[in-house]
Structure formats: structure tokens, C-alpha cells
Model the fold of this input.
Amino acid sequence: MDFLPLIDRYARGPGELRASVSGLSNADVDAFPVPGTWSIRQIVVHVMHAELFNATRILQTFAEEHPLVMNWDENLFASRIPAEHIPIEACLLAVDGVRGTTVPVLRAMKPDDFERVCVHSRAGKRNIGEMLSYFTDHLPHHVKFIDMKRKLLGR
Done:
């Protein structure tokens, strides 16, 4: 499989996230236009945390032989980590940095490297290609929720 188009999509993710929150005020990102769901800030913080875990899993699988990679509970993170104290710009910079340093590694990989396997503590065996596909789709999945909340806020 040719992973270059997927890597290109993965590389565009930070710009999509940044565009989705552009021009929003702190009141906007902390609002709950859909009661019982995450605020825009909580979504952005979640995406940032996911990026940290996901890039680490890819890099660890590339560097090590069959590493064990740990699950993380996004709902516990959302309930225990005070997102309201985390600046949106810091999250965006973290996502930029994580993808900005992971993309060159992905581009340097040989086709066989995408078959390298880790063992996820919950999901079992996963290869780099599968993880890259999932992680590439994860960010735009959440951007859709941000866009929907923006519309509800009239932004």
C-alpha cells in the first residue's frame, strides 16, 4: 500500500484543527451548546492528549520490537484534568509539534515498516499502518464536532 496520501492527510490535520477554532473567544470555547457533551476546549484538549499518545505509539512501534503500548481512558482524562485551565493555543502548538516531528519519520519509513506490530493493552496487535489510518481520521472526526458547536454558537 502507498502510505504517502495518508501521511499527507495526517500532516494537514493540525491546520484543520487550528482553522476550526480560529476566531473563537474563551467564552465560545468554554460554552456547552449541546448540554452533556464536551465543550470545544475539552475537545481540543482531548485531541492534544490523543496526539501525544498516538504519536508515541507509532514511534515506539517503529523503534522497538513488538512493544506493549498502553490504553488511556479519555473519559477519565476529561473528568479529572481541568481543561478550562489549558490554553487553546498551547494545545494547537503541541499538535503542530507532535505531527510536525512525526511526519518526517513516517515519510522516511520503508513500506515494510508500516507492518511493524505493537501490542495494545486493550486492542491487541496493531501495526503502524492501521494506527496511522485510525489516527489520521481521529482529528477530523473531532473537528466535525467543533464545527457543529460553532454553528450552534452562531460563529
In short: The chain is about 65% helix and 5% strand. Strands lie at 68-69, 117-120, 124-127. The longest helix spans residues 128-152. The two ends are 40 Å apart (CA to CA).
